[in-house]
Specification:
Helix content: 10-25%
Distance between the termini: 13 Å
Shape: globular
Radius of gyration: 21 Å
Largest sheet: 9 strands, antiparallel
Number of helices: 10
CATH topology: Jelly Rolls
Bound molecules: 2-acetamido-2-deoxy-beta-D-glucopyranose
CATH class: Mainly Beta
Number of strands: 21
Number of domains: 1
Structural class: alpha+beta
Low-confidence stretches: 1-19, 330-378
Strand content: 25-35%
Mean pLDDT: 85
Length: about 375
Amino acid sequence: MLSARSATTLLSFATAVLGANFSLVQDYSGNGFFDGWDFYGNYDNLTNGDVTYVNQTNATNLAYVNAGGQAIIKVDNTSFVPYNEKRDSVRITSKDYFETGTIWVIDAAHLPFGCSVWPSIWTKGNNWPTNGEIDIIEGVNLMTYNQMALHTQSGCLAANGTNETGEQGGGDCSTSAGCTVIEKTANSYGEAFATNGGGVWATQFDTSGIYIWFWGRANVPASVTTATDSIDISSWGAPSASWPASSCSIPEFFGAQQLVIDITLCGDWAGVSSIYAATCTDTATNACYLDNVINNGTSQYANAYFEINYIRAFGANSSVVVDSSGSAVGTSAAGSTATATGAGASASTTSGAADPTARALWLAYTVGVVSVLSWVVL
Ligand SMILES: *[C@@H]1O[C@H](CO)[C@@H](O)[C@H](O)[C@H]1NC(C)=O
Ligand SMILES: *[C@@H]1O[C@H](CO)[C@@H](O)[C@H](O)[C@H]1NC(C)=O
Ligand SMILES: *[C@@H]1O[C@H](CO)[C@@H](O)[C@H](O)[C@H]1NC(C)=O
Ligand SMILES: *[C@@H]1O[C@H](CO)[C@@H](O)[C@H](O)[C@H]1NC(C)=O
Ligand SMILES: *[C@@H]1O[C@H](CO)[C@@H](O)[C@H](O)[C@H]1NC(C)=O
Ligand SMILES: *[C@@H]1O[C@H](CO)[C@@H](O)[C@H](O)[C@H]1NC(C)=O
Ligand SMILES: *[C@@H]1O[C@H](CO)[C@@H](O)[C@H](O)[C@H]1NC(C)=O
Ligand SMILES: *[C@@H]1O[C@H](CO)[C@@H](O)[C@H](O)[C@H]1NC(C)=O
Ligand SMILES: *[C@@H]1O[C@H](CO)[C@@H](O)[C@H](O)[C@H]1NC(C)=O
């Protein structure tokens, strides 16, 4: 018997193959948002920020779905933090990894900002930096724009003269800052992002290159707002950031990527004295920590939160979803949550291993009887 899940899988898969569209393979939204993620549960030993990333048990007040169905991820702004201690925050990584052939769409209404605040939504391979890193959303302190970047081993460069609307920074992706691109579209970060109603990012992770688009709320194209089962990227035009494979071999520098969402405080970027002072004025030693992290943190962190409408992954086919070892995911993927909208399900069966029926149909499909199967499924 065909389960509803495998029917959905085959239909969306057929769409992807027959057109240049990408079909939904994972949907992080609504009450099931946090089911597909792992919580870090350790102090920030990655970027030297002044936070403890709580475990899932301790995250109930810092990572939750609000009454409007939006995922909230925030810095603790209610606890008194004594001098020399860290403030609680959140870092989560997706259980699923995504191969080239993936489009991630991130719709947010609010991004964390404020002096000392350093949020990011990004991706990384299972071995850093060997398997690469894509920074989709990142800003510090009172910056007014989003900064995108790739981080890789030596040998991956940003191309010159690419058709991107952002402003290219350093071109060597192996430097500590990475190969950066500054967003030039207005309202991409900070208070203006929130008052503008937020916006949407789409990232294409492809063997031909890596591309990031950004739209403020009023300009999100219908191809994005109406994308549920599939997404058509053909009318999006020039991306904000473009790193074509001509100067960076994507398969060589990037493995399957998992999504990461975190907010740290101060640390290696926000906390650097000159960078902190650039938008937060105080040039005193350790000002980032002393002015913000300690004491009640009430007003300092009133805006230090993500409000995420959804994060969706669309794939050239369902096989783009893998685990940390690169194996296609089984039916126990993130979508096992009953509240997920079926995307995890569509991520689950084309590997064939977990579902002999799907496997048989998959083989039939590959020998060219997809149109017949589509009718059978319907
Ligand atoms: C993608 O899907 C849309 C909506 O079904 C369709 O109009 C469009 O032609 C498709 N594009 C491609 C390249 O197949
Ligand atoms: C950070 O701490 C965790 C938990 O102790 C540990 O597993 C990990 O290796 C540490 N990472 C670094 C870069 O030190
Ligand atoms: C979660 O973190 C708290 C605070 O550090 C700790 O007491 C608790 O044991 C942790 N729980 C788990 C399940 O790791
Ligand atoms: C964290 O977890 C520990 C042990 O479960 C508990 O004692 C503590 O009150 C929790 N703290 C917060 C901030 O949730
Ligand atoms: C799935 O799509 C990826 C990316 O386009 C491609 O490399 C791979 O061969 C496809 N897999 C199948 C089973 O069609
Ligand atoms: C881009 O231009 C700079 C400056 O001329 C040069 O150093 C760099 O090698 C160029 N990058 C590529 C990928 O050609
Ligand atoms: C850049 O992209 C835009 C939008 O797709 C296109 O109209 C334009 O022709 C492209 N320019 C170049 C130089 O490729
Ligand atoms: C922190 O908040 C508590 C309770 O509201 C208050 O009594 C205390 O004075 C505050 N401490 C500082 C340093 O602002
Ligand atoms: C704490 O932060 C939340 C947003 O996460 C905000 O709504 C609330 O007003 C803040 N609390 C105070 C006392 O400022």
